[in-house]
Amino acid sequence: MNKTARQALTLCKRIVIKVGTSTIMYPNGTVNLQRLEKLAFVLSDLRNQGKEVILVSSGAVGVGLHRLKLLEAPKTIPEQQAVASVGQSELMNLYSSFFFNYGQVIGQVLMTRDIVDFPESRLNAINTFEQLLMKKVIPIVNENDTVAVDELDHETKFGDNDQLSAIVAGITEADLLIMLSDIDGFYDRNPNEDKKAQLFHEVHHITPELFALAGGVGSKFGTGGMITKLNAAEHILERSGQMVLANGEDPTVIFNIIAGEDIGTLFTAKQAN
Ligand code: GLU
Questions:
Q1: 237 CB near ligand 1 (under 6 Å)
Q2: d(Cα 247, Cα 264) in Å, to the nearest integer?
Q3: Pairing of the two strands 176-181 and 154-155
Q4: Pocket test for ligand 1, best of 142, 146, 231 (most atoms within 8 A of CB)
Q5: 182 or 98: which carries more pLDDT confidence?
Q6: pLDDT band at residue 180, thresholds of 50, 70 and 90?
Q7: pLDDT score, position 222
Q8: Is the distance from CB of 60 to CB of 78 less than 8 angstroms?
């Protein structure tokens, strides 16, 4: 293990944490309150330690489906956006009460690709994050699903929240992105299908070979899949940032990661000495 790189994580001050829908919801479509509560506890404690934390949370569509008692996502875009609208406020309501219990204030940040394409929008977003963090508020970010569109000449959609979290980590110059998923890290094969699958403890470069492993048959492990995780990692490495991909089953794993323990896959440009 590259001890230096892992130990360097103990020094991280500004941390972005990304959770996917599969982390905060049960497979039966209801909200995993235990996880949300633990996540709020961990992030609040980090805030108390003096760390600056930003949460990127999916779940608007998932929670919206549950709230509207729908068994599956509707097919049309207006319907999907309506579901996201219901779910996003419900999700924030839940976060708000859990974080309130731990004495923290949260702020909702809904983003579109404008922050990538328009410097002025980017600057406004950066300034908002800075203000929130200065005021010790925990920003909770999601894509603005109700306005995001994915058209040829007018693209405001990020595509996925893995990408969004990497962009947020980039514009806020975060020291670390922790991506919590339903898998222990990045494997050379699908660990659910092959017991011999090996975990990459550390990755320094995102190569076409890694993309081939991530895109192989049956390797869409999580909801977002491994390709989107690698895309995010590539974005992070381009700006010499660091990212840890780990299992979000128990959100207290965040403490272990920041303590420099060998958990999940660390994507870092730093080589072992
Ligand atoms: N913004 C979507 C939601 O909150 C999720 C997108 C994603 O997870 O990639 O439901």
A1: no
A2: 7
A3: unpaired
A4: 142
A5: 98
A6: very high
A7: 40
A8: no
| Sign of the alpha-carbon torsion through 122, 246, 52, 12 | negative
Q: Measured from the CB, is residue 141 less than 6 Å from ligand 1?
A: no
Ligand 1 pocket test target in 21, 77, 79 with most atoms within 8 Å of CB? 21
pLDDT of 38 strictly over 80 = yes
The string of pLDDT tens digits covering residues 161-173 is 999 999 999 999 9
Distance CA 273, CA 268 (A): 13
Is 184 a pocket residue for ligand 1 (Cβ < 6 Å)? no
61 Cβ below 6 A of ligand 1:
yes
CATH class of 5-268: alpha beta
Which residue ranges make up each domain of the chain? 5-268
Residue 174 has pLDDT above 60, yes or no: yes
Residue 258 has pLDDT above 80, yes or no: yes
168 close to ligand 1 (CB < 6 Angstrom): no
- Closest by CA position to 47, among listed 14, 24, 80, 18: 14
CA–CA distances in Å: residue 224 to residues 7, 23, 75, 133, 194: 29, 12, 19, 28, 20
Mean pLDDT of 24-40: 95
